[in-house]
Specification:
The chain is mainly alpha-helical. It contains 6 helices and 3 strands; from the N terminus they run ααβααββαα. The protein is globular, with a radius of gyration of 19 Å.
């Protein structure tokens, strides 16, 4: 229910954005209790493993990977759902556990590598990492399917389109505060 208007009035965009934060907050307990049950990997590390598993084992087009399944840290950071702070440290812990592997990035002819510097690393999930995260991904899908049961494909497409619009605007440089709000 809107904090600023009656339920039968036009929706307030502020309420929509606030609902995104509320949904994320309320999703964390079931994610931890159901999807991550007995996984032994914290949510933020599981997020990394899911993205890398999706690219290497499920054929996801993003984050963009090289032919060997390695992803730049920048591409991975852009794909993460649960925060990108401490990314290098999290990847190091996953590598120590044998769940991912890193190597020095190399420029490949004809492959776009923006911001790739000389000491950059790339990362991919190992077979052990995929075995560990595959059941998490399946439980996550089941959780989401139960949560969204009865929502039509049209409603899902409309919600996704709106979220993609918001995301693209946040990524672009159009968003600046007016001088009076700085």
């Amino acid at each position: 229910m809107s904090k600023t208007a009656r339920p039968d009035s036009e929706p307030d965009p502020v309420d929509y954005i606030a609902s995104i934060f509320r949904v994320r907050q309320r999703m964390l307990p079931p994610l931890r209790q159901i999807a991550l049950a007995d996984c032994g990997v914290p949510l933020e590390q599981a997020d990394i493993l899911v993205e890398l598993h999706g690219v290497r084992e499920l054929g996801w087009p993003e984050p963009e990977a090289d032919p060997d399944g390695y992803v730049t840290y920048r591409a991975l950071r852009d794909a993460l759902v649960h925060g990108d702070t401490l990314l290098s440290r999290r990847i190091s812990r996953l590598e120590e556990a044998g769940l991912v592997e890193t190597r020095k990035a190399s420029r490949r002819k004809g492959v776009r590598t923006p911001g790739l510097h000389g000491n950059a690393l790339v990362v991919r999930v190992t077979a052990a990492g995929s075995r560990k995260i595959a059941p998490v991904w399946l439980r996550y899908r089941e959780l989401v399917n139960r949560l969204l049961a009865g929502v039509s494909a049209a409603e899902l497409r409309a919600g996704m389109a709106l979220n993609q619009l918001i995301e693209s605007r946040l990524k672009s440089s159009w968003l600046t505060l007016p001088d009076e709000l700085r």
